[in-house]
Structure to design on (1521 residues):
C-alpha cells in the first residue's frame, strides 16, 4: 500500500512522525525509530529560557565580583567557551549523520528575541525543518488576545527572516480564531501547523507548599479536538498540517489523515510501547486501507475536512446541539 | 619590513606577549599585580599558541613563588629558556634562587610588576621596594616606564641576558603600568625572530646539565676558595652594560625605537635635572617639555639599567651644565643615609670627581627624594614642585613629595591648583560599579579610540577596597600626541556618573573642568532631575557652567534584558555626547567591539548588547540646568556624629576617597588601628533587604548563621527592654523553654546588608495561606531605610544574651554577638559565615593570625575593618603577617600566650600566701572549657586584681599586668586553600605536627579567590580555573586525611550550607581540644560560577554527591578506646555530574573540550566514590578495647 504523504515539502514514506519528546534525545533511539518506520523525527524542544538563561547567567557572572583591584574576573575565559545549548546543535548534526529520514528541530519560546537566532544555527547544523513551539500561557489581564497572537506572528516573522528551511508552528488550541491565525501565519511565511500543543499540568505539593511541574501522557480522547481543527483548517489553508496529541493507534492516524493531517505525530504511545509501536501501527493502517480498498493514503487525505464532509455543521455547533439532544432524549 | 600592528593593551599583556613567545617554560604563581601575566601565558599555551620557534611554552603553576623560582632555576639548568612573573613578597621569596641563578651566570629574565613590600601594612599597589630588595642578588635590573617600554624591554632584556649571561629582572610599575591600557606598536613574531640570537640561545643550551656531557654545579666551597671564585665573575658584570647597549642598538635598528642605559630628555644645557626610573619618568618627561617650552633649562635622566649601575654611562648622559640633581626613589629604606638610587648617584659623582673624570662645569648639588610609595600619585604639580625645589639656593634634601609630612617635615609644598593639562587632550572620568560593567565598556571605548582613530589613548582604572558593591573610576585620556601623564585625571572635560547613588556619596564634579560635560544615569527625567541634585552638585554645575545630560540607563538595561549591566548604554551616551566619532560610525564601532568581546561567547549576548545600544539614544536627554542653587538638602555626612574621633578625622576622609589629603600625623606609626570601624561605614548597597514576619518565624536563627555580613541578627531579652522601642520595631514572644517569658527579635542592619538573599533562601518558615511569603522576604531597601535604621539602632542597644545560659548549637550560637561584621566580602560570600561564627563562639578571647588572601582583605583592608568588640571592650586581636606563614605566625601567638600564662601562674603560686590559697587554687584548677567556666574565671581574675592592689611588690604589679592571661585564650590561624594546601603547607604541617594548641581554619574555595580564581591543589578534578584552563587533571589534595595521619590532630571537614549543626559542633570541639586542630570549611565562591544566592544549595550538592564528606576526627575518642573518626554525611545520593554541572567551573570544560570533560567527570565520580568508601571504612574500624574484644 502506498502510505506516502507530503509534509513541509518532504515526501514521507508514511504519515507517522515521532513527535517532540525525550525519545529524540538519544541517537540510538532515533535510529531505532527510523528502523521501526518513523517517517521523520522531531527533536526535543530547545527552550528560550535555556538559551537566554545561559546568556543572562554569563553576563551576571562576568561582572560579579568585578571592581576589586586584585581581580578583574573570577572565572577563566578559555578559547572556545561560549554559552548556549551547542550540545543541541551537535545532536542535530549527529542525528543527521545517523539516519536518512528528515530531522525536525524544535524551538520553544514566547517572545521575539536573540534566542530566535538559534533557528539559523539549527538550519546550519543540518536540521531539515523547524518546529516552532510558541508555548505561552497568557496570565496578564492587560494582554489582549490580539497581543498574544501578535507574539506568535512576530516570532514566526523573525525566524522566517533567518532560515530557508520549512517552519511549522506548533500552536495551542486557546486562540479565539484559529482559522484566522492560521491564515495570518501563512502570510508571515509559516509552512505548516502542528496542532496542538499540550500544556504542562502543574500539580500541588501539599507538604512543601510548592508547585510540581508535571506532564501526563495524552489519552485518545484528546484527539477529538485535533480532528475538528484539522478538518476546519485543512479545508481553507495550504499549510502543511500535523496532528499531535492523542494519536495512539492506526485508527487515530486514519482519522487525523481524513481530517486533513499530512502527518501524525506520536509521543505517548511511543513512550509507552517503544518505537516498535510504529511498525505495528503502519501494518494496521496498511491492512485497513487494503481492506477498504483504498489505493493510497493520499486518497483519503482531507476527505473528512470541512469542505468535504457531507454535513460541515457537525464539526461545529450542530454537533454540540445534537449531543445535547441525545442527552435529553 | 615587517608590518606592525598598533594595539591597545595593558602593561601586563604587553610584557607577557613577548615573554610567552621567546621562552620554552614559564613557572608561575599568582600575585597581584602580576597575576595577569601568568594568566595570559597559561591561556595562550592552553590555546596552543606557540613561541617563535613553533613550540607551545610549558606553563606550570607552582606552590609558591619560591617554588616557581626553583623550578625556573632547574629549567634553566636544563637548558630551556625560562621565565616567571611576580611582584612584591613573591619576588622576595625568589631571592635564594636568584642568587643561585646569577652566581651560575645563567641567562634568564623575570618580569616584575613592581609592588610595595608589606611593612606596617600590606599594599597591593606599586613602588620599587621589591626591586630594591633584590638589587644585591647579582641580577641586572631593567626598568620600563610605559606600556610600550614594557613591551620593548621584555625583548631587550632577553637579548641582553643571552649575551651577557647576567640574569635580568625586567620591571615596570605595578598598576600604573601593569594595568594601564595604552596604544603601542606591537612586536611581531618576525621582529622577535630577528632579535633573538640563535647562536646565543644555543650557547645557553650548551651550558645545560646533561649526562651526555656531565658537569657538576652547586658545589660547596670553603674559606680557601669561595672568595676568589666569587670574584671570578667580575668580568661578566664589567661587560654587562655593553651587552645591554648592543641589544638596545640592535633593537633600535629593527624597530626605530631607541633606548639608552640612561636616557636623557630636555635642554642640552640644562642646569636642573631629575633622575628617576619607572612610570614617574613619564610624568617628569611631560613637565620637562612644558618647562623648557617656557624658556627654562631643565632635564630628565631616565634610568633604564639600574643594575649593574654603569657610573660612567650615567655621568656621560648628564649635560655638562648640570648644577643640581634631584634623585627620585620610589622606595623607603629607613635608617639608610639615603635611598638606593640617590646613593648610587652620589657615589658615581664622587668617584668621578675623585678619579678626575668628572665632566661637569661645576660639581652638581645632589638631593634625594621619595615619591609614589604604594602607587601614591606622582603628578604634574608634584614634578613641578621638585623642579622648584632644585631652583632654590639650598634645595631640600631627603624630601618627600606627594604627601603632607607634618611629623618629620620632609615634604615639599605643592600647589594643588597647578596643572599643565592642556586642551589638546580629552580627559574623561567615569564612575561606575564593578557589577554594572563600566570598566569593561571603558576599556572597549579607549580601544575604539586608540585603534580606530589617529589618537593616542590611555585608560587607567581605579578599583575599590571592598568586593561587594565595589565602585570603579575609569580615567580615559586621548589626544594627537603620545600621552605621558602617568597619573590620575584631576581636570576632566567629561564626567559620567553611572549610578545615581553616587550623587549623594561622591564628589565627582570636583574633578570637572569649566565648560565640561556631566552625564548621569538617573531615575529622574530631564525635567525633574535638577531638583534631585544635592546642593553641592547644583553649585558645581552652575559654577563650572557644565552641560548636563541624563538617561535612565537602569531602565533601558532592564527593558533590553541587560540586567544590571548599564555599561554599553552609558558607553553609547559617551560617544553620542562627546562627538569623538560621527554618531553612526561610533555606534558601528561600539557594536564591533561588542561582537569582538562577546561574539565568541554566543550571538545572543552580543544581540542583547546591540539592543541596549539601539535603545539608548532615544532615552538620552540634555538637562535644563536651573538658574540658581535651589536644593535644600546637601550631601549627608560620611559618618555619624557618634563615631569616635579617629574615625571622623581619618577614616571618614579615606571613605570619601580623599585619603591623599591626610597628613603623616594622622596615622599610627606602627600600623596599629582600632578595630570595629565598619560599623561607621553605611554603604547602602542593597537593593532589597529581608523583612521579617515575626508571627511566621520559627526562631531557628539559621538566617543569622548564614548571613555573610552579620547584617541580620537575633536577640532574646526581657520584655522590659522593649521600653522606648520605635513604633515599627518588631518583637515577639520567645518560643522555646530555655528563655521562657522572654522576647525575641530578628533585625536587619538595613545599611550594611548587601542584599545577597541567602537569609531568605535558608528561611524554612512558609506562610500556609500564601507560601510565596516566608518569614523573611526580600523587599526594596530604599523605602525601609530610615525606619529600619532606627530599629537597628534600638536593637543594638538591647542587652546581649547571658552567654552562660545559652545552649550552644546552631540556634544558641546565633544569639552571641558577632565580632566580625559588615566586611567588604562579596555579596553572598561563603567564607565569612565561618569567620563570623568563630568570633561569636570565642571572639572575646580570640587571637587570629590571618594568611594573606580574601580573608585578610575583607578582614583588614582600610578604610574600615570588620573585627569588632563586645560591650566589655573585648574582641578578636587580628594580624595578617604573610601569605605563607599564618600557621607559624599563629603558633608564635600560642607560644607567647602560653609563656605569659605560665608566668602568671608561677606568680600566682608565689603570692599564694598573700592572695589566699583558695582563690589561687580555684584559678589554677579552673575548668575553662565552657562559657560558664570562662565567665567564672574572669570573675576570679577580677577578685585577684582587687587583692593584688593591696600587695605592694614588683611581683604583684607584674601579676596585675598579666592576670588576664589566666583566662584561656584561643589561637586561630585563618586562611584560604592557597595558603593551606600550597604556599603555607610546610608551615601548616609543622604547626600540626608540633602538637601545640593552635587551631587552623581553612576557608576552602578550591581556588586562589582573592587574585581571581587561579587553581590550587584544592581545586577539584575536572574543574576549570585560571592556570588550569584545560580542567584540573588531578584530584584535590586530601588535606584532612593527611592531617589525620598524625593521630594527635583534631580534624573536621564542614560545610555549613549542608549541615550547620555539624559545623558548630566542629568549631566547639576544635577549640576545646588541647592540641592542634584543623577545620577544612567548604566555602562557596564567586569563582565557582553561579549566583551566590544559591550558595547553600551548592554546598549541599557537594556533600550529597560525596565530593565533600563531612566528618570529625577527634583524638580524644582514641584515648577512650573509640574510633576517632565520625563520618557526618551519608553515602552519596546524587551523581558527581549533578553537582558539578550546575557550576560554571565544571561546565566550562564541557563546552570547550567535551571529551576531556567527560573523561574527567567520570574519573571524578570514581574518585569521589572511592574517597567516601575509604572514609566509611575508616570510620567503621574498631579501636582500642573494642578491637581487643574482637580479636580475643
Amino acid at each position: 500500500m502506498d502510505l506516502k504523504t507530503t509534509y513541509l515539502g518532504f515526501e514521507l514514506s508514511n504519515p507517522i512522525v515521532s513527535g517532540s519528546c525525550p525519545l529524540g534525545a538519544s541517537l540510538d533511539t532515533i535510529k531505532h525509530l527510523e528502523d521501526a518506520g518513523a517517517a521523520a523525527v522531531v527533536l526535543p524542544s530547545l527552550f528560550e529560557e535555556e538559551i537566554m538563561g545561559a546568556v543572562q547567567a554569563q553576563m551576571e557572572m562576568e561582572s560579579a565580583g568585578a571592581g576589586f583591584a586584585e581581580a578583574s574576573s573570577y572565572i577563566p575565559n578559555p578559547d572556545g567557551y561560549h554559552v548556549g545549548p551547542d550540545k543541541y546543535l551537535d545532536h542535530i548534526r549527529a542525528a543527521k549523520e545517523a539516519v536518512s529520514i528528515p530531522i525536525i528541530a524544535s524551538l520553544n519560546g514566547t517572545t521575539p528575541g536573540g534566542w530566535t537566532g538559534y533557528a539559523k544555527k539549527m538550519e546550519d547544523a543540518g536540521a531539515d525543518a523547524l518546529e516552532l513551539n510558541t508555548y505561552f500561557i497568557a496570565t496578564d489581564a492587560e494582554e489582549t488576545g490580539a497581543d498574544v497572537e501578535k507574539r506568535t506572528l512576530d516570532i514566526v516573522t523573525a525566524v522566517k527572516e533567518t532560515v530557508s528551511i520549512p517552519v511549522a508552528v506548533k500552536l495551542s488550541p486557546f486562540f479565539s480564531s484559529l482559522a484566522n491565525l492560521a491564515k495570518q501565519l501563512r502570510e508571515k511565511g509559516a509552512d505548516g501547523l502542528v496542532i496542538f500543543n499540550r500544556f504542562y499540568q502543574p500539580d500541588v505539593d501539599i507538604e512543601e507548599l510548592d508547585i510540581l511541574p508535571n506532564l501526563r501522557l495524552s489519552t485518545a480522547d484528546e484527539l477529538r479536538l485535533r480532528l475538528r481543527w484539522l478538518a476546519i483548517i485543512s479545508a481553507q489553508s495550504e499549510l502543511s498540517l500535523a496532528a499531535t496529541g492523542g494519536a495512539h493507534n492506526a485508527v487515530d492516524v486514519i482519522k487525523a489523515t481524513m481530517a486533513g493531517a499530512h502527518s501524525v505525530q506520536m509521543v505517548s504511545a511511543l513512550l509507552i510501547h517503544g518505537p516498535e509501536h510504529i511498525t505495528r501501527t503502519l501494518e494496521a493502517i496498511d491492512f485497513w486501507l487494503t481492506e477498504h480498498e483504498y489505493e493510497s493514503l493520499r486518497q483519503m487525505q482531507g476527505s473528512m475536512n470541512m469542505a468535504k464532509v457531507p454535513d460541515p455543521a457537525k464539526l461545529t455547533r450542530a454537533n454540540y446541539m445534537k449531543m445535547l439532544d441525545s442527552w435529553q432524549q | 619590513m615587517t608590518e606592525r600592528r598598533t594595539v591597545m593593551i595593558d602593561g601586563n599583556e604587553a610584557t607577557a606577549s613577548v615573554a610567552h613567545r621567546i621562552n620554552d617554560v614559564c613557572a608561575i604563581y599568582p600575585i597581584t599585580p602580576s597575576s595577569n601575566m601568568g594568566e595570559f601565558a597559561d591561556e595562550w599555551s592552553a590555546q596552543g599558541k606557540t613561541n617563535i620557534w613553533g613550540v607551545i611554552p610549558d606553563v606550570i603553576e607552582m606552590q609558591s613563588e619560591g617554588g616557581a623560582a626553583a623550578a625556573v632555576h632547574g629549567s634553566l639548568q636544563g637548558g630551556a629558556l625560562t621565565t616567571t612573573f611576580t611582584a612584591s613578597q613573591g619576588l622576595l621569596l625568589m631571592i635564594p634562587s636568584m642568587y643561585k641563578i646569577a652566581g651560575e651566570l645563567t641567562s634568564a629574565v623575570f618580569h616584575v610588576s613592581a609592588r610595595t613590600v608589606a611593612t606596617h601594612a600590606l599594599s597591593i599597589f606599586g613602588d620599587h621596594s621589591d626591586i630594591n630588595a633584590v638589587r644585591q642578588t647579582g641580577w641586572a635590573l631593567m626598568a620600563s616606564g610605559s606600556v610600550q617600554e614594557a613591551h620593548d624591554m621584555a625583548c631587550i632584556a632577553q637579548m641582553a641576558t643571552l649575551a651577557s649571561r647576567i640574569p635580568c629582572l625586567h620591571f615596570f610599575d605595578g598598576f600604573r603600568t601593569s594595568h594601564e591600557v595604552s596604544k603601542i606598536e606591537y612586536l611581531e613574531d618576525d621582529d622577535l625572530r630577528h632579535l633573538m640570537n640563535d647562536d646565543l640561545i644555543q650557547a645557553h643550551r650548551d651550558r645545560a646539565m646533561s649526562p651526555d656531557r656531565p658537569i657538576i654545579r652547586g658545589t660547596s666551597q670553603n674559606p680557601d676558595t669561595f672568595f676568589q671564585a666569587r670574584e671570578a665573575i667580575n668580568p661578566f658584570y664589567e661587560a654587562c652594560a655593553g651587552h645591554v647597549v648592543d641589544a638596545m642598538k640592535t633593537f633600535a635598528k629593527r624597530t626605530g625605537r631607541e633606548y639608552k642605559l640612561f636616557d636623557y630628555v630636555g635642554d642640552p644645557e640644562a642646569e636642573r635635572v631629575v633622575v628617576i626610573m619607572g612610570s614617574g619618568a613619564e610624568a617628569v618627561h611631560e613637565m620637562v617639555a612644558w618647562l623648557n617650552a617656557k624658556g627654562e633649562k631643565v632635564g630628565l635622566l631616565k634610568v633604564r639599567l639600574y643594575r649593574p649601575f654603569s657610573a660612567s654611562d650615567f655621568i656621560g648622559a648628564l649635560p655638562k651644565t648640570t648644577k643640581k640633581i634631584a634623585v627620585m626613589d620610589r622606595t623607603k629604606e629607613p635608617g639608610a643615609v639615603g635611598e638606593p638610587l640617590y646613593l648610587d648617584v652620589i657615589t658615581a659623582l664622587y668617584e668621578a670627581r675623585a678619579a678626575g673624570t668628572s665632566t661637569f662645569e661645576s660639581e652638581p648639588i645632589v638631593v634625594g627624594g621619595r615619591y609614589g610609595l604604594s602607587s601614591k600619585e606622582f603628578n604634574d604639580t608634584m614634578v613641578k614642585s621638585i623642579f622648584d625645589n632644585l631652583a632654590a639656593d639650598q634645595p631640600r634634601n631627603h624630601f618627600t613629595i606627594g604627601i603632607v609630612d607634618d611629623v618629620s617635615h620632609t615634604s615639599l609644598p605643592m600647589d594643588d591648583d597647578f596643572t599643565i593639562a592642556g586642551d589638546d587632550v580629552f580627559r574623561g572620568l567615569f564612575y561606575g560599579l564593578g557589577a554594572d560593567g563600566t570598566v569593561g565598556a571603558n576599556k572597549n571605548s579607549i580601544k575604539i579610540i586608540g585603534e580606530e582613530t589617529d589618537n593616542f589613548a590611555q585608560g587607567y582604572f581605579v578599583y575599590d577596597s571592598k568586593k561587594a558593591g565595589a565602585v570603579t573610576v575609569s580615567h580615559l585620556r586621548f589626544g594627537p600626541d603620545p600621552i605621558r601623564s602617568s597619573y590620575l585625571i584631576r581636570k576632566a572635560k567629561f564626567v559620567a556618573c553611572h549610578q545615581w547613588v553616587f550623587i549623594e556619596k561622591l564628589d565627582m564634579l570636583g574633578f570637572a573642568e569649566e565648560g565640561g560635560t556631566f552625564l548621569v544615569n538617573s531615575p529622574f527625567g530631564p525635567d525633574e532631575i535638577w531638583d534631585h541634585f544635592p546642593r553641592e552638585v547644583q553649585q558645581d554645575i552652575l559654577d563650572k557652567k557644565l552641560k548636563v545630560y541624563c538617561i535612565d540607563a537602569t531602565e533601558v538595561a532592564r527593558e533590553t534584558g541587560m540586567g544590571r549591566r548599564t555599561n554599553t548604554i552609558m558607553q553609547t551616551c559617551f560617544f553620542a555626547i562627546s562627538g569623538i566619532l560621527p554618531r553612526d560610525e561610533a555606534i558601528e564601532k561600539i557594536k564591533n567591539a561588542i561582537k569582538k568581546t562577546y561574539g565568541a561567547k554566543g550571538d545572543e549576548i552580543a544581540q542583547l548588547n546591540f539592543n541596549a545600544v539601539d535603545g539608548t539614544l532615544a532615552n538620552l536627554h540634555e538637562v535644563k540646568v536651573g538658574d540658581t542653587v535651589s536644593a535644600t538638602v546637601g550631601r549627608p555626612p560620611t559618618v555619624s556624629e557618634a563615631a569616635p574621633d579617629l574615625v571622623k578625622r581619618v577614616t571618614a576622609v579615606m571613605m570619601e576617597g580623599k585619603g591623599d589629603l591626610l597628613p603623616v600625623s594622622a596615622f599610627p606609626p606602627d600600623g596599629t588601628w582600632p578595630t570595629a570601624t565598619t560599623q561607621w561605614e553605611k554603604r547602602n548597597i542593597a537593593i532589597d533587604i529581608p523583612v521579617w514576619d515575626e508571627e511566621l518565624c520559627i526562631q531557628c536563627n539559621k538566617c543569622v548563621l548564614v548571613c555573610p555580613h552579620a547584617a541580620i541578627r537575633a536577640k532574646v531579652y526581657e520584655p522590659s527592654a522593649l521600653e522606648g522601642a520605635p513604633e515599627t520595631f518588631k518583637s515577639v514572644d520567645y518560643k522555646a523553654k530555655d528563655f521562657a517569658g522572654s522576647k525575641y527579635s530578628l533585625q536587619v542592619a538595613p545599611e550594611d546588608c548587601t542584599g545577597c538573599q541567602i537569609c531568605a533562601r535558608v528561611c524554612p518558615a512558609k506562610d500556609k495561606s500564601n507560601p510565596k511569603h516566608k518569614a523573611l522576604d526580600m523587599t526594596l531597601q530604599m523605602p525601609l531605610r530610615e525606619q529600619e535604621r532606627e530599629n537597628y539602632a534600638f536593637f543594638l542597644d538591647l542587652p546581649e544574651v547571658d552567654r552562660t545560659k545559652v545552649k550552644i548549637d546552631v540556634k544558641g550560637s546565633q544569639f552571641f554577638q558577632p565580632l566580625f561584621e559588615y566586611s567588604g566580602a562579596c555579596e553572598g560570600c561563603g567564607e565569612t559565615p565561618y569567620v563570623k561564627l568563630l568570633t561569636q563562639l570565642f571572639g572575646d578571647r580570640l587571637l587570629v593570625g590571618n594568611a594573606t588572601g580574601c580573608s585578610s582583605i575583607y578582614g583588614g583592608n582600610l578604610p574600615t575593618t570588620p573585627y569588632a568588640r563586645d560591650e566589655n571592650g573585648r574582641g578578636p586581636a587580628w594580624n595578617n603577617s604573610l601569605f605563607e606563614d599564618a600557621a607559624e605566625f599563629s603558633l608564635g601567638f600560642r607560644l607567647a600566650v602560653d609563656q605569659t600564662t605560665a608566668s602568671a601562674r608561677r606568680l600566682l603560686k608565689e603570692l599564694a600566701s598573700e592572695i589566699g590559697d583558695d582563690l589561687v587554687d580555684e584559678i589554677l584548677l579552673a575548668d575553662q572549657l565552657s562559657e560558664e567556666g570562662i565567665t567564672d574565671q574572669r570573675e576570679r581574675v577580677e577578685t585577684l586584681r582587687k587583692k593584688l592592689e593591696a600587695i605592694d611588690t614588683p611581683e604583684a604589679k607584674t601579676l596585675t599586668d598579666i592576670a588576664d592571661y589566666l583566662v584561656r585564650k584561643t589561637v586561630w590561624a585563618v586562611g584560604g586553600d592557597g595558603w593551606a594546601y600550597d604556599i603555607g603547607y610546610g608551615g601548616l604541617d609543622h604547626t600540626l605536627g608540633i602538637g601545640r594548641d593552635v587551631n587552623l581554619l581553612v576557608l576552602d574555595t578550591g581556588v586562589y579567590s582573592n587574585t581571581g580564581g587561579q587553581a590550587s591543589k584544592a581545586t577539584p578534578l575536572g574543574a576549570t580555573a585560571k592556570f588550569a584552563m584545560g580542567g584540573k587533571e588531578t584530584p584535590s589534595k586530601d588535606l584532612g586525611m593527611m592531617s589525620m595521619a598524625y593521630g594527635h590532630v583534631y580534624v573536621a571537614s564542614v560545610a555549613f550550607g549542608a549541615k550547620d549543626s555539624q559545623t558548630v559542633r566542629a568549631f566547639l570541639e576544635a577549640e576545646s581540644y588541647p592540641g592542634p586542630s584543623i577545620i577544612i570549611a567548604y566555602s562557596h565562591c564567586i569563582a565557582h560560577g553561579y549566583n551566590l544566592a544559591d550558595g547553600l544549595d551548592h554546598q549541599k550538592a557537594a556533600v550529597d554527591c560525596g565530593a565533600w564528606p563531612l566528618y570529625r576526627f577527634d583524638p580524644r575518642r582514641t584515648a577512650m578506646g573509640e574510633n576517632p573518626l565520625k563520618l557526618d554525611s551519608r553515602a552519596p545520593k546524587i551523581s558527581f555530574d549533578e553537582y558539578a554541572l550546575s557550576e560554571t567551573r565544571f561546565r566550562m570544560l564541557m563546552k570547550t573540550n567535551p571529551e576531556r570533560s567527560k573523561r574527567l567527570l567520570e574519573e571524578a565520580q570514581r574518585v569521589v566514590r572511592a574517597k567516601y568508601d575509604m572514609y566509611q571504612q575508616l570510620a567503621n574500624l574498631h579501636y582500642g578495647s573494642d578491637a581487643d574484644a574482637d580479636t580475643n
